[in-house]
């Protein structure tokens, strides 16, 4: 290669050497007859100097030109000790312009203010910005670390197909029309779940893969149509074996990527405790702020709102600050988004109680509240009376909002926990039946094994989620590996024999031939990268993401195609 | 985990230890009151023994049952030194049947005779066979090695989208209808070509990825609808830099995966020499057998077939064996498949010339042929008179057939070469125009840069293919990074301004903002794994491949889908 060094490589040790560098012009500064150019590549920045004695002139060199220079390493007069190359500069003796650049639509630097669609439209320029490049260097390092970890632990990386079969349950499938099989469609995988279970039945013992998955759902800040998953499965392993394997991986990642050592085991919290204390199955433990049930406090209340408690709970959260009217309006809005219309509140300030509830409290209730929340300073209490789960969910969302509102979250704080003992089923209002909460291949808990298919509401699963800072990083379960239990599970979610056979017959058949018990897990790597990079959207850690309409503003995909293409695929648009 | 060891782990060193193993029953042998069971997992086989004194009986244990046993490691009487566990056996004291197995549709062993569709239908059982597992262990090791190599050489692994835009040129795209954008379609990538070039323009310097690609072409023994590619690109690098990087990778692979050291540089052969000597641009160099042009020998011939040489060449190959009538018919059939109707031949045996041409040769022609081919034993000469390229192609195919027919190929022989100096264009009879031979982003050679868009026939490309044993492993090129040259290239293949803008405008625009020169390469990993595993089809190294109709006989994908699914995607079948 023509360059002798990268732009991040030269130091005072290279003094007087003749070097050739190639890179982008980051900055041009004229100082009398002198011109200074910052030359940039992904490794760093090196200062070039063109002075009066230079035969080579830097005229017309502009930012983002790609140039090649040869010159001598000399000591800088005004040194910059912030960067590794800051003690030297290159006295240029030869200059070649490799490619010129027009004025870029936004400046190539950190902290730009361009709209996201502009950044996506010129993504190749957005990716030129150092803070973006750092995200992808982190992602590269993360991937190498993950694979090393699994290889060393005797997991085999095996690829699963992208072209699969559409199956019911789960999210909406993406479909690919088949040209060779008229009228038929492949489905893109939502996860390689059944394939990895077949690997266990094949005897591969331990499998992992970093793999693209696809869900045709509406997009959110932390969701894309295609996403990347770390997928793993272990034979002769139960939930604890998998949790231990994943926990050690995450500790390894935190140490090697972030330099943070986790010595303690991650907390394991029951699903029911998570809902009870935090209102959500992915609690953000970077701040306390627990939700409490106050049914007892208001057992004999005269407050009209709290009087009718049939099938309802009074749930509450307390912050040690007097919230403003604007804060309360914002939180009420969040309650409404979570199907709760009334967010009642009480303010406690200098022994005075005010607010929609505060003014109506009995002395006994006041004492109970002070005791319950250990109140000893100005505080605001928020109350919801509703179905226990609805009230919890709304207060969970309010709690997360309060974390930001009250600046309770420290930067670079990472709080992991396992949530365990999940319900096996959840009721689908849309489908008007119970559906599998995780997926229908999840093993019921030992306590539920006898009656999971009659007592849907109390059935628990051998399932676990790993949560980081209020985000679900991923989850997994021990799988069913027994045909009888599998059939009971399918029937429980409303499949008849015919539907089992048509959709999963090919899979359930595999259990006939000697299946080891096995468990596994999957982690969302886009989300993990987002959290490790301290960015606010997964789009910051995906090279060419789609916007919230599923469109890539750079290529304009998806796009119209030729009618002849559709003809060949035996389809037409409606 | 409950097991204390795997089935490949115990040896004489573990004598008397109490161990727990889990695995599949590979074999059951009764010997009087004794029962011996071979217990199998992916790591190996351990012999279990149940004798009269065992409290635990092995009754009803059948092949492919999954069992867990506890017992004591004892020394075997009749040792098997072929396997690492062959000196010991386990005297079983406890037995748990984890899962039973029905009789499998084929035996779980190497060298089975089941039809491929049966193997694919029960792929989870096929993958249980040790020879299949070895293929995937090799593939796992290969992947780790490749990523380690590129990481160490400062390449960044970055993911490119699966949902892209359909573009002309190249193979047929797979399409994915968009639900969110009515009537529009994503296209699955045939390769991440343009994305990786944008990474170079973004300044990522060096990129690699092991990535799934998609081509909707008819299937062959070494082609699948989805395939896996090692993709790489380097900035400030020319063809030689890339060839060196890939060559070192392949040498590293051969040493670490196959234990074969390559000290010499791989041969670099001009495309024109490959065609001239071997009739093909991916010659199998495991055997000699060169094709020769005999126009001079037959300059004044009286043989009717060779008389009319207008625009034709007489091309020939000579083997030191008398081919049978059956051999010749087989080879004639190959000639016909390659658009050549007459395969003429001459046999030389004991100074006698026979055959369709042999009997008509003049003494001078005989002497010339003996001299040309250095004939000194019984030989058969095959002749084709036709357009130079057509004759070459047919004899290239015949040469490959002769390699097998005459058993000229040694096992575990690996002959790599680079083919360079490819034509920039090839004529498409179907499209009735010149198309890019590699792709339209390939840099013309220095000699062709001035007139490549007028002298299509002689224009050469800065492109290179890496060939192993007659298979094209992959290829690459230096890319165009100059808008003017790129526009000339597009116009040369018949694109007007409008078509450039609609299809590639988003990409060509990126050249405006400072593009470094760059070069890259892609290798087909399915094919490489096939060759390294000494298997005859890429389906042997893909976990769940499609058959030649694009169908997975296990899941029955592609399949019919619900009308409501198509409705949501705004399409219908025709």
UniProtKB/TrEMBL annotation, chains A, B:
ATP binds at residues 215-217, 224, 472, 524-527. The keyword Aminoacyl-tRNA synthetase applies. Keywords: Aminoacyl-tRNA synthetase, ATP-binding, Cytoplasm, Ligase, Nucleotide-binding, Protein biosynthesis. Signal peptide: none annotated. InterPro entries: Aa-tRNA-synt_II (IPR004364), aa-tRNA-synth_II (IPR006195), aa-tRNA-synth_II/BPL/LPL (IPR045864), Asp-tRNA-ligase_1 (IPR004524), Asp-tRNA-ligase_1_N (IPR047089), Asp/Asn-tRNA-synth_IIb (IPR002312), AspRS_core (IPR047090), GAD-like_sf (IPR004115). SUPFAM superfamilies: Class II aaRS and biotin synthetases (SSF55681), GAD domain-like (SSF55261), Nucleic acid-binding proteins (SSF50249). Its main location: cytoplasm. It is found in: Cytoplasm. It comes from the Bacteria. Residues 193-196 are annotated as: Aspartate. Homodimer. Belongs to the class-II aminoacyl-tRNA synthetase family. Type 1 subfamily. This is Aspartate--tRNA ligase. It comes from Spiroplasma turonicum.
């Amino acid at each position: 290669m023509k360059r002798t060094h990268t732009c991040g490589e030269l130091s005072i040790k290279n003094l007087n050497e003749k070097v050739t560098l190639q890179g982008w012009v980051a900055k041009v500064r004229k100082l009398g007859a002198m011109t200074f150019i910052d030359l940039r590549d992904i490794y760093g920045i090196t200062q070039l100097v063109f002075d009066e004695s230079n035969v080579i002139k830097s005229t017309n060199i502009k930012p983002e030109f790609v140039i090649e220079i040869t010159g001598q390493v000399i000591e800088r007069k005004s040194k910059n000790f912030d960067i590794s190359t800051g003690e030297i500069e290159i006295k240029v003796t030869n200059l070649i312009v490799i490619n010129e650049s027009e004025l870029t639509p936004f400046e190539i630097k950190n902290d730009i203010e361009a709209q996201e669609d502009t950044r996506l439209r010129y993504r190749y320029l957005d990716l030129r910005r150092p803070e973006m490049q750092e995200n992808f260097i982190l992602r590269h390092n993360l991937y190498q670390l993950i694979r090393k970890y699994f290889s060393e632990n005797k997991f085999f990386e095996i690829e699963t197909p992208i072209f699969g079969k559409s199956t019911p349950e789960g999210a909406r499938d993406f479909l690919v029309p088949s040209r060779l099989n008229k009228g038929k469609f492949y489905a893109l995988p939502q996860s390689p779940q059944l394939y990895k279970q077949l690997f266990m039945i094949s005897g591969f013992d331990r499998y992992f893969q970093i793999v693209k998955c696809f869900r045709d759902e509406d997009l959110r800040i932390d969701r894309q149509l295609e996403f990347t998953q770390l997928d793993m499965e272990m034979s002769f392993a139960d939930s604890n074996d998998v949790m231990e394997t994943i926990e050690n991986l995450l500790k390894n990642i935190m140490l090697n990527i972030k330099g943070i050592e986790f010595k303690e085991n991650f907390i394991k919290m029951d699903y029911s405790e998570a809902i009870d204390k935090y209102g959500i199955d992915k609690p953000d433990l970077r701040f306390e702020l627990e939700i409490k049930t106050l049914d007892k406090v208001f057992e004999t209340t005269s407050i009209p709102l709290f009087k009718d408690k049939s099938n309802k709970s009074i749930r509450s959260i307390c912050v040690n600050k007097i919230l403003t009217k604007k804060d309360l309006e914002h939180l009420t809005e969040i309650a409404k988004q979570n199907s709760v219309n009334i967010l009642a509140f009480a303010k406690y300030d200098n022994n005075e109680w005010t607010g929609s509830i505060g003014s109506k409290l009995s002395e006994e209730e006041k004492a109970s509240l002070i005791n319950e929340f250990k109140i000893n300073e100005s505080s605001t209490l928020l109350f919801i009376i509703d179905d226990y789960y609805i009230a919890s969910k709304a207060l969970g969302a309010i709690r997360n909002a309060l974390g930001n509102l009250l600046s309770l979250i420290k930067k670079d704080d990472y709080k992991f926990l396992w949530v365990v003992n999940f319900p096996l089923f959840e009721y689908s209002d849309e489908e008007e039946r119970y559906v599998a909460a995780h997926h229908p291949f999840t093993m019921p808990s030992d306590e539920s094994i006898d009656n999971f298919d009659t007592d849907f509401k109390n059935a628990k699963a051998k399932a676990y989620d790993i949560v980081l800072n209020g985000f679900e990083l991923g989850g997994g379960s021990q799988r069913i590996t027994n045909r009888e239990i599998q059939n009971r599970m399918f029937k429980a979610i409303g499949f008849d024999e015919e539907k089992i056979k048509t959709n999963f017959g090919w899979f359930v058949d595999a259990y006939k031939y000697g299946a080891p018990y096995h468990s596994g897990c999957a982690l969302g790597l886009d989300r993990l990268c987002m959290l490790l990079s301290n960015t606010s959207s997964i789009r910051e850690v995906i090279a060419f993401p789609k916007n919230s309409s599923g469109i890539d503003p750079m290529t304009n995909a998806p796009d119209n195609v030729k009618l002849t293409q559709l003809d060949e695929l035996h389809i037409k648009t409606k």
